[in-house]
Amino acid sequence: MGEVDPAFIQDPEHRPKLSATEAEGIPLIALSPLNSSDNISDPKAIEGVVREIGNACKEWGFFQVINHGVLLDKHKKIKAAARKFFAQPLKEKRKITRDEKSLFGYYDTEHTKNVRDWKEVFDFTVEEPMLMPASIDPEDKEETKWTNQWPEYPPELRVACEEYTEEVEKLALKLMGLIALSLGMPGDRFTSYFKDQTSFIRLNYYPPCPSLQLALGVGRHKDSGALTVLAQDEVVGLEVKRKRDGEWIQVKPTPNAYIINVGDISFWSNDRYESVEHRVLVNSERGRFSIPYFVNPAHYTLVRPLEELAHEQEDPAKYKPYSWGKFLSHRKLSNFKKHNAENIQLYHFRVSE
């Protein structure tokens, strides 16, 4: 990795407090009632899970799930293949570097000159090809196709990624159904939005960092999609900003658990649920792996508060509609082009009070 930019030292807003509060962790929820063969005869158990998820989304924006039904051997295979890929020399990994034409593939912070984020990444789309708008012009109705880049080595990486995707996709859609139920809607309320989903998966590698005070694995941010399903290894790093007091809370790894957080599209709920800031700290001695699955709707989805939850008199819509595809294209392309305006953000669509 490259040297840390000296200007970063003077930016206390983004420097981590290394003594994060650990007194309280994000909720841990067992999904075993949903995987039980007799769950139909015990609706109260499922109601309990729905209630726990609703409370976690409202109070934290984050939770962990165990007994989720994902086959663990698929996770082991993708992790092993990812380790082989990231262990290669940079020149080999950069053969599939993402760019303006190929938006999926590899990148590293030295290559992109982004010294604030100390990591390497490999992205791939869940549905290939991913259908997207041809441009960010609101009037342009043309579609384009985004495709994956796969490395020659290790040869098993592609199969491991595709098998893992099948497993975690089931969990992601199950969670979207539970979230719908927690909002008082039918469990299939969100299903149609993901017919041509623009979801993608990221393999993150955070190398050991010699200057803990000067860099983050990932700086403070919110996820822009509907939901994120994250697998992490045993190395501590993820921190969540607790809503009630703004304290950074360390998420201690739980064996075989997935970490779930709602993204900015949670404004479907008209702010009943909100995305929250999170970040990743680096480690001076050990590298860290994580695998987030960013659950996103079809590009032609018009995102806005749902009519069931935005009542004109009692609780009017707090956001204006926006095109998810144009939003995502703008975000992705901003990695390669500088726009005159600020990068598009959720609050740009908030209705003025």
Helix-residue proportion: 10-25%
The total count of strands amounts to: 16
Global outline: globular
How does CATH name the architecture?
Sandwich
Average pLDDT, all residues: 86
Number of helical regions: 8
CATH class: Mainly Beta
In a few lines, what is going on in this structure?
With 353 residues, the protein is of the alpha+beta class. It contains eight helices and 16 strands.
Could you explain how this protein is built, in words?
By secondary structure, this protein is α+β, with helices and mostly antiparallel strands. The protein has a single domain, classed as Jelly Rolls, CATH 2.60.120. 24% of the residues lie in helices and 20% in strands. It contains 8 helices and 16 strands. It has helices at residues 6-9, 32-35, 43-59, 72-86, 90-93, 109-112, 157-182, 324-333; strands at 28-30, 62-66, 106-108, 120-125, 130-133, 143-146, 200-206, 218-221, 227-232, 238-241, 248-250, 258-262, 278-280, 288-295, 302-303, 322-323. It has an 8-stranded mixed sheet. Strands 8-13-10-11 form a 4-stranded antiparallel sheet, with no helix packed on it. Strand 10 and strand 11 (248-250) form a beta hairpin. Helix 4 (72-86) crosses helix 7 (157-182). The longest helix has 26 residues, at 157-182. It is globular and about 60 Å long. The N and C termini lie far apart (46 Å). Mean pLDDT is 86; it is low at 1-23.
